[in-house]
């Protein structure tokens, strides 16, 4: 299945929205049906292309939030001045269609036989590919240890909240915390990583995804702790997510 | 403008080279070497600009002109393609 994703031409295909799930006030998950979908690897993304009536086109990349073997799912954060995300998070209804090409990517991916232990660090919508990895780990009965460090602005901004309750997740809420919050309440720094990340001696494999500044500081912190740079995979979403 | 990384242009790279390219090892004229996925990528301009993460030199530029993608690789010393899965 993975082989089919890496050979041949990458073509635009029609994706039909099968279902819509509101994750937070600004984030929505779209389950897609894509005839001819070749299957994907956890961590890959798709390019979405919207074409206006006058022919104007806009393209954006969105990580897949579903595991290999599951239908493609994207989770989109609305950027108010965006060209694509306002449509995907507000306008689109089940039955609507747009174009996608993919799956794309061979670097920020995890297959069960890549092993671990896995340390995942996500900022905001950077959690989307991490859900694909967590689901793939469960579906493949992998015994690899995994821990997710997930940074959100507030508890209301936490995406996949219920599903993540079943995983080993350490939350940090950087902007506001609910009454009685006992978790972390600051941006991720090296001291926080020292407390949360697997120790270097375990030979961990790290995936870091989120806004560029988040990814830069987490990756630098992991290197400071002694993580091998080659064992730290990074994916940057820019200033405000994508 | 804040930099993204080579993951963001996996689709463009695939379109141009006809295969998965984010794991290709790019060598900058400065000698730095690493997967294209780790290069700095700027999408906000009229084209796509790929820079070396070490010396920040431009290693690749992609510009779309009338459905044709123009590619400038003059900042690249070498590009090594890994075996496909």
Task: Please specify the SSE layout and strand pairing.
The complex is a heterodimer of chains A (242) and B (85).
Chain A: H1 2-6, E1 13-24, E2 27-33, E3 45-51, E4 57-63, E5 73-77, H2 85-91, E6 97-104, E7 118-123, H3 127-139, E8 146-152, H4 161-164, E9 169-173, H5 190-196, E10 205-210, H6 212-224, E11 232-236
Parallel strand pairs in A: 7-8, 7-10, 8-9, 10-11
Antiparallel strand pairs in A: 1-2, 1-6, 2-5, 3-4, 3-6
Chain B: E1 4-5, H1 10-17, E2 25-28, E3 33-35, E4 40-42, E5 48-51, E6 58-65, E7 68-72, E8 76-80
Antiparallel strand pairs in B: 1-4, 2-3, 2-8, 4-5, 5-6, 6-7
Structure description:
The complex is a heterodimer of chains A (242) and B (85). Chain A has helices spanning 2-6, 85-91, 127-139, 161-164, 190-196, 212-224; strands spanning 13-24, 27-33, 45-51, 57-63, 73-77, 97-104, 118-123, 146-152, 169-173, 205-210, 232-236. Chain A is α/β, with parallel strands linked by helices. Chain A has 2 domains: 2-104, Elongation Factor Tu (Ef-tu), domain 3; 112-236, 3-Layer(aba) Sandwich (Rossmann fold), CATH 3.40.50. Chain A starts with a helix and ends in a 6-residue tail after the last strand. Chain B has one domain (4-80). Helices cover 9% and strands 40% of the residues of chain B. Chain B has 1 helix and 8 strands; from the N terminus they run E-H-E-E-E-E-E-E-E. Chain B has one helix at 10-17; strands at residues 4-5, 25-28, 33-35, 40-42, 48-51, 58-65, 68-72, 76-80. The longest helix of chain B has 8 residues, at 10-17. Chain B is globular and about 35 Å long. The N and C termini of chain B lie far apart (35 Å). Chain A binds chain B through residues 2-3, 5-7, 9-10, 45, 47, 59, 61, 101-102, 104-108, 212-213, 234-239, and chain B through 2-8, 10-11, 14-15, 18-20, 22-23, 35-38, 84-85.
């Amino acid at each position: 299945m993975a082989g089919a994703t890496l050979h041949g031409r990458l073509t635009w295909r029609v994706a039909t929205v099968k279902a819509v799930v509101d994750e937070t006030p600004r984030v929505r998950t779209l389950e897609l049906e894509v005839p001819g979908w070749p299957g994907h690897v956890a961590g890959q993304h798709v390019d979405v292309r919207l074409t206006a009536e006058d022919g104007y086109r806009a393209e954006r990349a969105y990580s897949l939030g579903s595991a290999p073997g599951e239908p493609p799912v994207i989770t989109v954060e609305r950027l108010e001045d965006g060209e694509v995300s306002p449509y995907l998070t507000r306008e689109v209804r089940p039955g609507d269609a747009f174009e996608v090409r993919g799956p794309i990517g061979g670097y920020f991916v995890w297959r069960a036989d890549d092993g671990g232990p896995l340390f995942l660090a996500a900022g905001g919508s950077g959690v989307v590919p991490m859900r694909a990895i967590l689901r793939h780990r469960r579906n493949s009965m992998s015994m690899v240890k995994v821990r997710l460090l997930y940074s959100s602005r507030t508890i209301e901004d936490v995406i996949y909240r219920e599903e993540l309750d079943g995983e080993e997740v350490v939350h940090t809420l950087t902007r506001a915390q609910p009454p009685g919050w006992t978790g972390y309440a600051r941006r991720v720094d090296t001291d926080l990583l020292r407390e949360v990340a697997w120790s270097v001696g375990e030979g961990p494999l790290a995936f870091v995804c989120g806004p560029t500044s988040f990814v830069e500081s987490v990756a630098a912190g992991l290197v400071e702790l002694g993580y091998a740079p080659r064992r730290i995979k990074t994916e940057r979403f820019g200033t405000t997510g994508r | 403008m804040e930099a993204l990384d080579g993951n963001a242009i996996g689709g463009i790279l695939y379109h141009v080279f006809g295969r998965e390219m984010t794991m290709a090892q790019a060598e900058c004229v400065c000698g730095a070497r690493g997967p294209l996925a780790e290069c700095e990528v700027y999408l906000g301009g009229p084209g796509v600009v790929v820079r070396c993460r070490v010396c920040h030199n431009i290693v690749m530029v992609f510009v779309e002109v009338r459905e044709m993608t123009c590619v400038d690789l003059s900042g690249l010393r070498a590009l090594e393609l890994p075996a496909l899965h």
